[in-house]
Amino acid sequence: MALNEEALMWVEKYRPQNLSEVVGLRDIVESLQSFLKKPGEMPHLLFAGNPGTGKTTMSLCIARQLYGQNWRTFTLELNASDERKIETVRNKIKTFARINYTGYGDVPFALVILDEADQITSAAQMALRRIMETSSQNCRFILICNQSSKIIEPIQSRCAIFRFSKLDKKAVIQHLKSIAVKEKLDITDSAAEIIVDYSEGDLRHAINALQTASVYRKGVIDEKTVLRVIGEAAPKQVQVMVNKALNGDFIEARDMMYELIGSYGFSGPEIIRQILRELLKLSYLSPEEKAELTNLVGEYDFRLTQGANSDIQLSALLAQFSKFQKSKGENN
Questions:
Q1: First CA to last CA across the chain, in angstroms?
Q2: 188 domain-assigned
Q3: Count of CA atoms in the C-beta half-sphere (13 A) of 282
Q4: Mean pLDDT over residues 42-51, rounded?
Q5: Structure confidence by residue, pLDDT tens digits, 15-34
Q6: pLDDT for the residue 1
Q7: Quick one: 147 and 98 in the same domain?
Q8: What pTM, to 2 d.p., does this model score?
Q9: Residue 301 belongs to a domain with what CATH number?
């Protein structure tokens, strides 16, 4: 049953339908468009990169541009995290790839889109390698993964590899603002920037955060609303806490840390992530000092991942910050 567009999540509602609508990634888009000018010469493709950078969207755009409204007929979509065993490769993929499609227009092959391909077992990847080799005349593969290193070399050598980096910050902000306009919302520059920083280049995450913020606040989405949605303290609060610790005021810095945990309900890893973000913004620290302090943050973040107590570890990190400034003064 077709969903009304108004009922769609914004991630789906504003998903690009063709390559020209894709946000950023100009180099990749241009390369893929050149392949589509002569579809018969298009190789197998491997898309690798962080989540939310457009890999799945790009593959669906290719399917639509190749087959138009009939793209579902000529495309097999699979998520390898759900169907990762050799039986899937042997049954579903092999059966689909074996069919001697006459093609669609000047496209002489069908298309297999295999999402999260790095989750496929080694045995299944070996079987897939053979299918890619024997079915290349009537079938093309688009493999999507987060880590290309988990794809065996024989498969990588049969594909044109495209690596998706984090999306450009300005492009993401512009895209969020264009969605806000279409949804009759007004988002402040600072709110859009916080969403983009929070999403760390993941456009899907950013759009979901924007949609959630629109529920909290009709009309205008400001910094306060966004911070409430993403569950982070105001950057100013964390910045003050870090500054107090670096200036030797450990007790006040620790009190602020307890307030963030108790009053706002933030977890240790969330606070550590924000500490690092604000630390790197401090202009009075040299690059060498930032590197040394970042190393400290990494150590305490690791301790938290091993199950250490958040209150104690965060207090210890702030104590190290206070000690750092003191030792710096003695050396001078």
A1: 72
A2: yes
A3: 26
A4: 90
A5: 888 888 887 788 888 899 88
A6: 38
A7: yes
A8: 0.71
A9: 1.20.272.10
Sorted by sequence, the CB contacts under 8 Å of residue 243 that are 6+ apart come out as: 282
Whose tokens are 């044109």? That residue is 160
Nearest 5°: the CA angle 159, 161, 165 is: 160
Same domain for 24 and 151, yes or no, is yes
Name, of 3-7, 161-165, 226-230, the range with top average pLDDT.
Answer: 161-165
Sheet holding 159-164, edge to edge: 75-79, 110-115, 139-145, 44-49, 159-164
Domain membership of residue 301 as a residue range: 235-326
Q: Pairing relation of β-strands 139-145 and 186-187?
A: unpaired
Of 17, 15, 14, nearest in space to 181 by CA = 14
Average pLDDT over residues 242-250: 90
Domain count, the chain: 3
Q: Does 14 share its domain with 147?
A: yes
Place of tokens 């104590």: 319
pLDDT tens for 162-219 read: 998 888 888 888 889 999 888 888 888 888 888 888 787 788 888 988 888 888 766 6
Angle between helices 268-279 and 310-331 (to 10 degrees): 20
Residues whose CB is less than 8 angstroms from the CB of residue 74 and which lie 6 or more positions away in sequence, other chains included = 63, 66, 67, 101, 104, 107, 110, 111
Give which of 111, 143, 109 is closest to 129, Cα–Cα: 143
Indicate if 29 and 153 belong to the same structural domain: yes
Three-state secondary structure readout of 102-130? CCECCECCEEEEEECHHHCCHHHHHHHHH
What value does the mean pLDDT take over residues 97-117?
A: 77
Radius of gyration of the chain (CA): 24
Question: What CATH number did the domain enclosing 157 receive?
Answer: 3.40.50.300
What token pair was written down for 116?
């999260």
Burial (0-12, 13-18, 19+ Cβ within 10 Å), 268:
buried
133, two tokens: 């080799």
Residues 226 and 267 in one domain: no
